[in-house]
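Lecture notes, part 5. Sequence design as translation. It can be helpful to think of inverse folding as translation between two languages: the language of shapes and the language of residues. The source text, in structure tokens, appears below.
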């Protein structure tokens, strides 16, 4: 290979490092729990993190029966585990069935930051759990 081709290949590799699949930004592991006032976990539903810098990104996580979630980033057909670094507005979407049926989405007043390390979120809702 010529030096010119090697140089071009090196530059291409530099641009590819740090990018996620199909043009997604680099993501970092991000997970946590969703609990009601009093500490009871929300069972089911999902969380949606909306980037304040790039609202076109979808960053979502399904909430398990124990209240835990792990975030996934989606844009078009590409998806990657985790979330890009940045500041996010968070909406909790209760499940559409069972004791949560009919509850509206809960938009949290504060923002959350995803960093390059330790992205463990405890989302405390200011509403009591639904009656069982």
């Amino acid at each position: 290979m010529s030096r010119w081709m090697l140089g071009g290949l090196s530059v291409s590799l530099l641009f590819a490092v740090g990018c996620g699949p199909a043009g997604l930004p680099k993501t970092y592991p991000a997970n946590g729990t969703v609990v009601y006032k009093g500490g009871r976990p929300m069972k089911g539903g999902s969380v949606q993190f909306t980037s304040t810098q790039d609202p076109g990104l979808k960053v979502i996580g399904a909430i398990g029966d124990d209240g835990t979630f792990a975030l996934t980033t989606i844009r078009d057909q590409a998806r990657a585990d985790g979330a890009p670094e940045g500041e996010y507005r968070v909406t909790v979407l209760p499940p559409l069935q069972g004791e949560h049926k009919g509850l509206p989405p809960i938009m949290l007043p504060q923002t959350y930051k995803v960093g390059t390390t330790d992205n463990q979120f405890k989302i405390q809702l200011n509403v009591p759990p639904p009656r069982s």
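The translated text above is only one of many valid answers, since several sequences can fold into similar shapes. Confidence is low (pLDDT under 50) at residues 1-20.
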